[in-house]
Write a structure and sequence with these properties.
191 residues; alpha/beta; Rossmann fold; 21% strand; binds S-adenosylmethionine; 5 helices; globular
Length: 191
């Protein structure tokens, strides 16, 4: 077999593996949506689109000394990006075991692994006090519960970036609302 055939076979294999991963991901997203309809305590898994994630992280003005958390971190996409781009201390809280395991696997290959912590927990059982920069991609029906947690746990001056869905609380002051693809990214500050 010459080099050309070898290259073609490697590309084919790469495409097949990518297709399998993509299919697993789509099936998994479907399953989490169905489960969410039955179990109202959960938010479905849907990764943030890059454009929303990048805008939210820019608004948060992350610094290496910040304590950043993604509440409901999925497979860790936001964590790894934040850590790589800003060198920030990143924590992910993810309730679903399989997503948590994916993110632990990805963390293994990350350059900044010492600055990345992933917890397989329900965020309601995690004290959020130590975090000063928060990222959230939730759904409207779960927001009131999340807001109560923010009001109880967060120290004054903590920033929260919420993509697509707003937060309503007298203790969380809206600082910026930026339009992205006809939707919004919101930045709040605990006052
Ligand atoms: C819309 S996805 C966002 C994923 C990731 N943050 C992103 O932006 O790419 C919401 C995630 O929250 C997780 N989740 C739902 N309820 C949770 C809870 N009570 N505690 C921790 N994670 C939760 C889901 O499993 C899901 O992965």
């Amino acid at each position: 077999m010459n080099y050309w055939h070898l290259l073609v076979n490697i590309i084919r294999l790469g495409l097949a593996v990518s297709l399998i991963f993509l299919s697993i991901r789509i099936i998994f997203i479907q399953l989490t949506f169905q489960k969410t309809l039955k179990n109202k305590s959960l938010v479905p898994y849907l990764p943030s689109r890059d454009i929303f994630m990048k805008k939210a992280l820019t608004l948060l003005k992350l610094k290496p000394s910040d304590m950043f958390v993604d509440i409901g971190s999925g497979t860790g996409k936001v964590l790894f990006f934040a850590s790589r781009k800003y060198g920030v201390n990143s924590t992910g809280i993810e309730i679903r075991k399989i997503l948590y395991l994916f993110s632990v696997f990805y963390r293994f290959f990350s350059f900044n692994k010492r600055k990345i912590l992933i917890l397989n927990e329900d965020y309601r059982n995690v004290d959020l006090l130590k975090f000063n920069k928060i990222y959230i991609f939730g759904i409207p029906s779960r927001m009131p519960e999340l807001v109560k947690k923010f009001e109880a746990d967060l120290k004054k001056g903590t920033y929260i970036a919420s993509i697509i869905f707003p937060i309503k609380s007298s203790e969380l002051k809206l600082k910026t609302k930026t339009s992205v693809l006809k939707r919004f990214v919101y930045l709040y500050k605990k006052v």
